[in-house]
Amino acid sequence: MSIYNNYIQEIEERKEQGLHPKPIDGADLLSEIITQIKDSSNPHREDSLKFFIYNTLPGTTSAAGVKAKFLKEIILGESVVEEITPAFAFELLSHMKGGPSVGVLLDLALGNDVAIANEAANVIKTQVFLYEMDTDRLKDAYKEGNVIAKEILESYAQAEFFTKLPEVPEEIKVVTFVAGEGDISTDLLSPGNQAHSRSDRELHGKCMISPEAQEEIRALQAQHPDKTVMLIAEKGTMGVGSSRMSGVNNVALWTGKQASPYVPFVNFAPIVAGTNGISPIFLTTVDVTGGIGIDLKNWVKKVDEKGSPVLNEKGEPTMEEVYSVVTGTVFTINTKKKKLYKDDQELIDLSKSFTPQKMEFIKAGGSYAIVFGKKIQTFAAKTLEIDIPPVFASSKEIFHEGQGLTAVEKIFNRNAVGLAPGKVLHAGSDVRVEVNIVGSQDTTGLMTAQELESMAATVISPIVDGAYQSGCHTASVWDKKAQANIPKLMKFMNDFGLITARDPKGEYHSMTDVIHKVLNDITVDEWAIIIGGDSHTRMSKGVAFGADSGTVALALATGEASMPIPESVKVTFKGEMKDHMDFRDVVHATQAQMLQQFNGENVFQGRVIEVHIGTLPADQAFTFTDWTAEMKAKASINISEDDTLIESLEIAKSRIQIMIDKGMDNDKQVLQGLINKADKRIAEIKSGDKPALAPDESAKYYAEVVIDLDLIAEPMIADPDVNNEDVSKRYTHDTIRELSYYGGTKKVDLGFVGSCMVHKGDLKIVSQMLRNIEEQKGAVEFRAPLVVAAPTYNIIDELKDEGDWDILQRYSGFEFSDLFPKSAARTEYENMMYLERPGCNLCMGNQEKAAKGDTVLATSTRLFQGRVVEDSERKKGESLLASTPVVVLSAILGRIPNMEEYKAAVEGISLTNFAPPHKLLVG
């Protein structure tokens, strides 16, 4: 009874936190519970029944296997439980989604008892999470003449699992809740410092926004019981910054509907909105849960009689309110007319929220059911040797005669599934594509594992070339939470078929390398499609899409993703870099110049940035592609010269070989396979058979941006502008300022060089600056702490070989040790340099943080409120983003430097070798 008693003790502990019993996923506990159910005199029998029926996780959890087996016994009369009739047992099986439950249903449907077989068949017809071992059984039974198998296949071919679902209501009443003004980061919905609890959905739900906001949502629900609360980003975009499934899960938990009465804390159908719509990655996550995302357009640019934007005293467009969305406002969404109404007044068109495909997601309760449903329908029709009945919305296909292809259009056409030979599609077309590389990161990985279990997946799709599970987001502190979660995650993913940062057997050294850097290395074809569980899945080879944990799970299980071909914005460069400028300054200037060229409109938002960097190898080009997440782009593509791409692939090969040498390859030799693919690609480029990816000369773009390097005279800093009178303009990445703006006086409390934004060159710049200042002043003294976190161990090894690590060690007051990792997060910093373990560190904000109220200058990508630094009572915390040399010098001076100090510190240092390509690359 010890396991059950431990569970009861845990329940009592959770009561003190205001929590319900944690859902059961373990076979041992559920087996004990079943034993108690069978014992009519057991004092725990009543509670055990409730746990079994209402609190057991479905899918492929070990508990689900035990539950399905017991329900089979009840249906066959081998066990009798008064409270669970055979009919109720079938109902419970119907809510278990797949895996063991489908196995049991097939056993019964293909068995000898006709009545039971018919009941089982009726349930199977509603299920879509079937895999090869399930479909093979159906196919074999059909070929042997089994009538029930034929009936099931005919139902699947007609997609009755979808057509018999209730229709989407024509009218949905909503009441507004404004979560905040300006862009709403997913950190507000699911804080990074609570990442450890994401797989415990009820517990994690308590961290959404604030307790006060949660109370206000509950009050709105009590006042409007017939309406759904719609969460709003007023004057901003909802869900920027990250791709967190946990954020959508939290919104659904507080405002959505329960997916099944027998599965606790899994809700669906959240409704979210923003003045400027929903972040593309976040919108994909909303689709996963069958939710609705709305672009409110309730604030628009004021224009004069000529139609030109009216500018304010700062030269920015003046905005005016079209209609109010203040908390408590009631609207009606008409899904048939695709309009938003206030009373009877039509406000905006919602066609983009209710495309035929999105209507299917809403009807089915999420995009997974549609993806798997289409696969099972195709299988059934093929087995029955009939044409696929037209049930689902036909994919939108757009082709413009005589128009060439952008780089992303080329990649999507090459990887498309089911396209007729010779057919070519342009942007806006709906496609299913094969995914080449998949990445799962550690703070969302446990949820990805849960999603894989819920969709009954047990092994990675053979279509995927390579997949990696990182340990970078929990690298800084090996605390009790990490010790409990990470080994379990690594074992699950390793068993599933991923290359894992930690070896469950403990045979190779644990790696905490930043996931984006590893994915950048294992992407060995610039024609690849990459899906990763982080918004910064932005590779400088191929096209990569940051995704929620569910979409990552879908890519791992099926090897596919579905999305429209995105529009592209072309970015090219002219002029010449000044010697004292860093490439990061080019990145920031790109955003600033783009906003100037388009009167404040962010033309990058929701689109692919096709950047013609050309001369930079993948490590350095990554600095640009990584930042495109903050530009609100959907993705980015680096157009490279042949020789540069070959150099990048050789670097990738060497780093993959290091992973092999460490013992990280698996039985299928996935890593060796990637090296072989890289060799093949290099040979194609050298021979001229297939040059580096480039767009067609006649390709069409949404916009074209030309960045003038001659205009970049000073280092550029992205400022969160925390005291801007317009709240909506705080914590965006749109305020880019030159160094001289700060007059050499702005105090800096902490500097951070790290995260995915830096490469080996940045760490070499740190060491060279220390030498410069040592030579100029005799020694280096830090007037503010400087935290340095290399993104990968490979970089540290290379710095050691090249002599740069020595000076970093000499000036550091702390150096990480893998033998004795930190067990608690740092809360206080001294004025010295800290050499931290490779990984995300301060950028993630879930473990290490700056002191509250600090002004941080960082190379990271995150300036959101509370992410790197929280507010204090004395002042707001702020995270300004700058190049490595600016950050290092600021930590030494304790303030942002002036131009003279900056130029002296970087004298003689080659900060970047970037130069625009001599000619524009076209295919």
TrEMBL record:
Any single Gene Ontology cellular-component annotation: cytosol
SUPFAM superfamilies from the UniProt entry: Aconitase B, N-terminal domain, Aconitase iron-sulfur domain, LeuD/IlvD-like
Database matches in InterPro entries: Acnase/IPM_dHydase_lsu_aba_1/3, Acoase/IPM_deHydtase_lsu_aba, Aconitase/3IPM_dehydase_swvl, Aconitase/IPM_isomerase, Aconitase_4Fe-4S_dom, Aconitase_B_HEAT-like_dom, Aconitase_B_HEAT-like_dom_sf, Aconitase_B_swivel
Sequence ranges assigned to domain Aconitase/3-isopropylmalate dehydratase large subunit alpha/beta/alpha in this UniProt record: 410-894
Highest taxon of source: Bacteria
Gene Ontology MF: a single term: aconitate hydratase activity
EC class: lyase
UniProtKB keywords: Iron, Iron-sulfur, Lyase, Metal-binding
Domain Aconitase B HEAT-like: 6-162
Biological process terms in GO annotation: propionate catabolic process, 2-methylcitrate cycle; tricarboxylic acid cycle
EC number: 4.2.1.3, 4.2.1.99
Pfam families for this protein: Aconitase, Aconitase_2_N, Aconitase_B_N
Aconitase B swivel domain sequence ranges: 177-405
Record bears the keyword Iron-sulfur: yes
UniProt keyword annotation of Electron transport present: no
Gene3D superfamilies, alphabetized: Aconitase, Domain 2 (3.40.1060.10), Aconitase, domain 3 (3.30.499.10), Aconitase, domain 4 (3.20.19.10), Aconitate B, HEAT-like domain (1.25.40.310)
Protein name per its UniProtKB record: Bifunctional aconitate hydratase 2/2-methylisocitrate dehydratase
Organism: Sphingobacterium olei
